[in-house]
Structures are given as structure tokens and as C-alpha cells.
């Protein structure tokens, strides 16, 4: 779990003109709203290429933590004023990822996702 709250914003043509996931750029005080984040070990060059490909929506880099000498960071954006619910298809991708990375049962995954809606 990471100390940042998940939210959905903007309108992505790829996802039925519905919201996509972002993290608040301020640390969350309530542990109930900490986020599960899937980690991928990539080079710094790959990280910036992903950010470039995502365009201006993900224009903020969050340095989350350092673990075993590796800096863990992600990209997000400041779109709190453009909150938008995600599509069911988008949520299914998130739920599938949670199932693969946490081994939570479906009920726990549903509860986790629901609290960020």
C-alpha cells in the first residue's frame, strides 16, 4: 500500500469517454484510502518514455519510496476538478490487476475499488 489516494478523472476516448486513474499528489492520512500500486522494474529512460506517451495528463512525477536501493516513482496529474467515473471496462482491468497482484477475493476487490468512486 502506498500513502496516496486513488481517484478517477478526465474523459478518455480509449475508455468510453470516462475517467482514468490518478493519484492525489498529497499524502493520504487515512490508511483506509492508501492505494495498491502494481510495480514494474524499468529503466529511467523507459519511465520518461511512458510519461511522454501518456501526454499531458500525467505531467507530475511522484517519488513514492526507496526500497532495496531502488527509487519507486509514478506519474499522475492534478485533475481533482475534473473527476469522472471510470467505465466498467476500465474497472475490470483494474480489478484483474488487483486479483493478480494481491490475491484478494472478489468481494475485497469490489470493496477496495468502490471506496474510491
TrEMBL record:
This is Uncharacterized protein.
